[in-house]
Design a protein that fits this description.
Length: about 575
């Protein structure tokens, strides 16, 4: 899902729609929307999708500066003379107009300012450079705005900020937005290469944090961009509580320091899997086993959580390469592959017993499980031990059955492009190279490929890095229906969308006396599955429910919800984490 780009937008970030994403968090949590549900809904959902008078909700659409990836200029090209400094925390400048903000997540109380430099030449000579870090008062990931102070006025730099920053809706009268000027030195290349063969790194968008060297190990120095660090830490579900800098650098990526003191993240680009054979989950591991057979199975190189990944690569630190492993095959690049020497090792037993769950069909015997190479180990080009998991034994942790509603003001041909980070498993109508539909103001869609009518667009797949929320609401089971009706309305869903949401989710919230419920907005949805809609919508609403059953009332920090006003061409997407 990619958010709408007001000045350009985010990967994860961006777009518009209402998808029902089914996620599973942790090895035991499993979520899946099957095609039967879609068929039933298509047959029974004949209610007209109402158009609601609107007003745009410029919600936080991104946690990443997509310009670092999409800018076609040579990275590092000077665009001005800047004196950078280490981030210095300063008093809150209070540049948001909280009373007028359409997005409760963006407010003065949740904002922190750092002075990071001075412009020496050009249009803004003498201006002070500030970094605004917005840790929203709701379950969203931190977003960044870079701005200049000129006299008593401030200029938001859209090209150096997360995409929603280009809207003036949020700001005080002494704040303007410049969509053309760009600070030099903050664009990093899509690919970095290390000094040894096959050390190829890909830039990760959607991540905001300040660089901290504590616990990091330098692996090489790039001639242009400086030292590159990593930190090998075996994944634990506990890392999914918040996503501050310490959590980011514990996800087995590679990290650099930008001139303004912010964190730049890369991940290893694998050359032992075939990205063209990525029928989710996972990708084909290009390997031959020791018995001479060629592997035909997909493997997943990351830990899974929610409907996405818990890390950038599943590095293992608690397995001894010499004593615990035995060679099982070889990759296409000539690297050895390993399995556990002891077929009854605790790691294997635990995975078979707790993580490997079967919801359709019959669970294979333990002997068959072992024979199918469920866990395979590989040493990467940076000498890190990595575990690949056979996709056949993964829990159904995917963004299952997202649905996208489209409400143009007049009957319009609309193109919808979606890019779930882990790929698609299903779509209806067939996705192909994207959806093209004729959308009516009442929400009815006609697919231009087959001429069939649909109430919404449907898909299933796997998202990107997912982090469980820490804020939310404790709801008694007897109050679930009322809570959902009220809260979904506050979040911007109309009666039809609310009814669709409740029809799926309420039956799944019956088995516990209480639930802790949270709703992510566009930032998380965009990170899991970037979405682009053409023509550009005026209003974008994307929500994702994460809930967990609890035995009794739990003290949890709540957060405010400001109801968006739908205006013009509106796209809505809703989803949830099914546990």
């Amino acid at each position: 899902m990619h958010t709408q780009q007001r000045s350009g937008l985010v990967l994860s970030p961006a777009v518009i729609a209402v998808a029902l994403a089914v996620l599973v968090v942790g090895g035991l949590a499993v979520g899946y929307f099957g095609s039967n549900w879609w068929s039933n809904q298509t047959a029974t959902n004949t209610t007209t999708l109402n158009t609601v008078a609107n007003t745009a909700v410029n919600s936080n659409t991104s946690t990443a500066n997509t310009n670092t990836v999409s800018n076609t200029n040579t990275p590092g090209t000077p665009l001005g003379d800047i004196t950078w400094q280490a981030p210095k925390k300063v008093a809150n400048l209070k540049l948001f107009v909280d009373a007028k903000s359409e997005e409760a997540c963006l407010n003065n109380a949740g904002s922190t300012y750092y002075q990071v430099g001075t412009v020496n030449t050009g249009t803004y000579a003498g201006a002070t450079i500030y970094l605004m870090s917005v840790a929203p008062d709701c379950p969203q990931t931190t977003t960044y705005i870079r701005l200049l102070k000129t006299g008593t006025n401030y200029v938001v730099l859209a090209k150096n900020s997360d995409s929603w920053a280009s809207s003036t809706t949020y700001y005080a009268t002494n704040v303007t937005v410049d969509t053309t000027y760009e600070l030099p030195g903050l664009r990093f290349p899509a690919t970095l290469t290390g000094p040894k063969p096959r050390q190829v790194l890909s830039l990760v968008a959607n991540v905001n944090g300040l660089f901290e060297s504590t616990g990091l190990t330098k692996v090489f120095t790039d001639a242009t961009y400086g030292p590159v660090y990593t930190k090998a830490v075996e994944f634990s579900g506990s890392k999914d509580v918040g996503l501050g800098t310490s959590e980011i650098v514990s996800r087995d990526g590679f990290y650099l320091k930008a001139p303004d003191g912010t964190l730049i993240v890369y991940q290893l680009k694998l050359d032992v899997t075939d990205p063209t054979k990525n029928d989710p989950p996972g990708e084909l591991l290009k390997a031959t086993w020791t018995d001479g057979t060629v592997n035909t199975t997909n493997y997943v190189p990351t830990a899974l959580t929610g409907c996405g990944a818990g890390n950038y690569l599943n590095v293992i630190t608690t397995v001894n390469r010499t004593t615990d492993l035995v060679k099982s095959g070889m990759t296409n690049t000539g690297d050895a592959l390993y399995i556990m020497k002891d077929s009854n090792a605790t790691r294997l037993k635990d995975y078979y017993t707790t993580t490997y769950q079967v919801f359709d069909g019959v669970k294979v015997s333990y002997e068959t499980f072992i024979a199918m190479h469920p866990l395979v180990f590989w040493v990467d080009p940076f000498d890190r031990l990595v575990i690949f998991t056979n996709a056949k034994f993964l829990p159904a942790v995917e963004c299952g059955k997202p649905v996208i509603y489209l409400y143009p003001t007049t009957t319009t041909t609309v193109d919808v492009h979606l890019a779930p980070v882990g790929g698609f498993t299903k779509s209806e109508p067939a996705y192909g190279d994207g959806w093209r539909v004729v959308a009516s103001p009442d929400g009815q869609l006609v697919n231009t490929v087959d001429g069939r009518r649909y109430p919404y667009l449907f898909w299933e797949g796997r998202g990107g890095l997912y982090t469980a929320p820490t804020k939310g609401f404790t709801v008694a089971q007897r109050d679930v229906h009322t809570f959902l009706v009220t809260t979904l309305g506050k979040l911007g869903l109309n009666p039809t969308e609310t009814a669709d949401f409740i029809a799926f989710w309420e039956p799944r919230m019956q088995g516990s006396p209480y639930y802790v419920v949270s709703f992510y907005g566009r930032a998380m949805m965009d990170a899991l599955a970037p979405l682009t809609v053409t023509p550009t919508p005026d209003t974008v609403i994307r929500i994702l429910m994460d809930y967990r059953p609890v035995a009794g009332p739990v003290a949890v920090q709540s957060y405010p919800i400001v109801t968006p006003v739908r205006r013009g061409f509106t796209v809505v997407e809703w989803g949830g984490v099914l546990r």
